[in-house]
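Supplementary Methods, section 5.1.

A reviewer requested that the exact input to the structure prediction be made available. We therefore reproduce it here, unchanged from the version used in the analyses.
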Amino acid sequence: MYLRRGRGNPKNRIVDMPEPHTSPLFSRAIVYTMIAISMLATAGYWGWGWYDDNTIVEVTISSPIEAMTASYQVRKKDIEEQRITTIDGIQIRLSNQERLTVNTLKTD
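The structure derived from this sequence is encoded token-by-token as follows.
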């Protein structure tokens, strides 16, 4: 019986929605403000990361095999797993036995 008659008469189900009373200028201002805040936050995050990566620290290398200790000034971004690069451009390769101690550079 359903197949013969179909679903019935199609009814117009469009309901008139009341229009919101906010102005489009207010909505645009909110969107542009959120975009500006997002861009400022991104720039701040990027700037802080750049500043922190270029901070100069003192790295002390202790070798238990040779019983020696050496200190170097290194940027944070130049400290890698098996190698460090000093601010003078000297690359120092590290062995698995050597121990690194990283301290902030004391400014007087």
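Strands lie at 56-63, 68-79, 83-86, 91-93, 99-104. These observations are discussed further in the main text.
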